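dude i think i finally got it to work??
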Amino acid sequence: MLRAKLLRTRGKYNWERFLGDCFGGLIAALIALPYGLSMAALMNLPPILGVVTSILTAPITALLGRNPVLIGGTASATVPFIAAAVKAQGIGGAAKVSIVASVFMMVFCVMRLGRYVSKVPPTVVAGFSAGIGAIMFISQLNVLLGVHAPGGSNSLVQFFTVLAEIPQMRFAPLILGGIVMASAAAVMYWNPRIPAPLVGVALAGVAAFLFKFHEPEVGSLSLTLPPFAGFSWTPQDVLSVIPTGLTLAFVASINILLTSRAVEHFRGRHNHHKAADADAELGAYGIANLAAGMFGAPMSVGIPARSVANVRCGGTTRLSNIMHAVFLFGLVSLGSGWLAHIPLAALAGVTAWMGLNLLDVSTWRRLPKMRLVDASAFLVTAVSVLVVNAVAAVLAGCSLYVFQYLYHRYLGSPSTMAGVPSIAK
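look at this
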């Protein structure tokens, strides 16, 4: 079954593509390790649960999902919901909210609601991708500059907070992160088939050893499968857990489907998947998150950094997602080895470089030549991702097309309707 799905992609599966899947899975795992730990800690969960999420859900989404290179994991979008559940009811509360949200995602699949996200205009998807890329870059600035993690309600506030601490910056992490970004860019220019971020991480590790930079490292961890989360349902849960689970399911679904489209946009594939594929993607993540939720692990949603890293390093099939989980398990299990000494600044450089890639410079260059509504939708979406959140940003971008349609429909002449995008019709 897996082989049949692998062969659906263009061309036959060979050793070159296998190595690409392995390299893509490895670098995605390197990014996933510190990110998963930090996200789980933000939710007041045991940090290892952030890694357990990826290990448990990746094989399921790889086999049942529709986007072969979309890699999921614990994300910041789910933090407020699960953190509140943990504060109220502990790990059992996180399990209840995640399980309810997973069930709702499967309901969305059965009701065929996912396909409506495919109607989001390409300029909004590009703006979403650019906004996420900016967040990825900003989120790593404090690590690259060696300053305290910034607080703030949105990424722009965090950005200016970090800039204010530049006088206290340290050069060692900036050098390590700079080595990763510069070498990755050079390798991509020289030979796109080589796993550029992996080369950058290796060179940064060598530089840290030679120059004796004593920077924070990944460190060793002990991976043990947690027990099933214990909880009991109460009448009060109808008014608290179920509404929270429904909202979490909505946010997670939008995140998954838009990240999937953004990754396809990044790959240069502008022929979108079938409408039914979006529904199936939600069903796959619903099943996967149900498995994670039973252990109290946080939900998995689409992660742009890992997905783009997977593509950049040669990942092309579902096997890359499975290898991501395999390598992640190996990194945790064998964390006492040399991999445990990878500087966190090097991984921050990988994430920052991926963020810069997602900014999509070509789209910014085309802005003056775009129609006003297209350019406005792109900018509004990108900025809203930074200052509000991804869901509100997409709604804001799409609203411009709705306003355009209403204007031409009720105030404009019939001839102007030809220029209105199909999303609004």
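Residues 16-119+170-343 form one domain.
im so relieved honestly
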